[in-house]
Amino acid sequence: DTGVSQNPRHKITKRGQNVTFRCDPISEHNRLYWYRQTLGQGPEFLTYFQNEAQLEKSRLLSDRFSAERPKGSFSTLEIQRTEQGDSAMYLCASSASLGGHTEAFFGQGTRLTVV
Amino acid sequence: DQQVKQNSPSLSVQEGRISILNCDYTNSMFDYFLWYKKYPAEGPTFLISISSIKDKNEDGRFTVFLNKSAKHLSLHIVPSQPGDSAVYFCAASDGNEKLTFGTGTRLTIIP
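^ inputs. structure came back:
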């Protein structure tokens, strides 16, 4: 399978616990994005990387959230001290930067439930 | 501040007829627009895109129209098929590659 892969698909955690999600982008894509989607809303941008550099972070990304892409390949998104409001679908996407606009391809997402 | 708006939460269309999904935007810096389709428990799947230098882009049964002066775009699906039943998201970019999404329109194709 050569699409964007996200693990785990589902995560249930207790409030206050830390969670980490992984995203493996399409191999030739140098841009990687994290989005969050809550019920009834469209995906909301969180952050993106070009290779290993994190180029932009949304103000939605509180200091409890951290994302890394250490070698410019896979990425991890960690949420510390989870809150019930963090319950959402976390989506990863990747694209190839070719000098113009290109479409982003999404993974199947990680659904987080904080109880 | 909802910069991309999809004012119809749902739409039902008979199989074989045309489906028209609408999207409005407020940010005049947006210069690239995309439509994504989403099934339950899956990530969005890219359908079709259009650059602001064009007013129409076609790909098989899917056509996107862009009216820059009205800040409006639409997705036409013809003929509509049962497999087209899904939530459709309009998204826009202002050149920095992050996408701003609308809230989606749930399309139901009636056999």
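Chain B touches chain A at residues 4, 31-32, 34, 36, 41-46, 49, 51, 89, 91, 93, 95-104 (CB under 8 Å). The longest strand of chain B covers residues 86-93.
thumbs up if we can close this ticket
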